[in-house]
From TrEMBL:
InterPro entries: Glyas_Bleomycin-R_OHBP_Dase (IPR029068), Glyas_Fos-R_dOase_dom (IPR004360), PhnB-like (IPR028973). It comes from Streptomyces luteolus. This is VOC family protein. It comes from the Bacteria. Residues 4-131 form the Glyoxalase/fosfomycin resistance/dioxygenase domain.
Length: 138
């Protein structure tokens, strides 16, 4: 899979409704995964919140989003990141090194519970980035 760059939106508990709305607007295929799907919570209402959602439209748009994880503060007005994802480890690690240099790393680039290598940083200009490196698809 080629690397892709797209917006990643954060929500305060209403990611499912928002992403379903965007699907109505743009069409396409919507995939939603909850915190409970990955064992990220001990149950309760948070288990049904969206850990990762992705809308891919027939026109080539990709929009990703999620509810703010338990324990993290939702910040209205700064509820977006730019997402870089793909399976080219060297390419994406190179982007990570450059983006995180002189910036702030909030989640180190390392293997996560869903199997991908993932990290979050804010570059030296204040732009938030997410980098996700998946396994190459055969």
């Amino acid at each position: 899979m080629a690397s892709r760059l797209n917006p990643y939106l954060s929500f305060d508990g209403d990611a499912r409704q928002a992403l379903e709305f965007y699907k109505e607007v743009f069409g396409g295929e919507l995939s939603l995964h909850t915190f409970g799907d990955f064992g990220g919570t001990a149950g309760g209402a948070e288990a049904d919140q969206i850990m990762h959602g992705m809308l891919e439209t027939p026109t080539g748009f990709t929009l990703m989003g999620a509810d703010t994880p338990p324990g993290m503060e939702f910040k209205s007005g700064s509820n977006f990141s730019v997402s870089l994802s793909g399976d080219d480890d060297a390419e994406l690690r190179g982007y990570w090194e450059k983006l995180s240099a002189d910036g702030a790393v909030s989640v180190p680039l390392e293997k996560q519970m869903w199997g991908d290598v993932f990290g979050m940083c804010t570059d030296k200009f204040g732009v938030p980035w997410m980098v996700d490196i998946g396994e190459p698809q055969s």
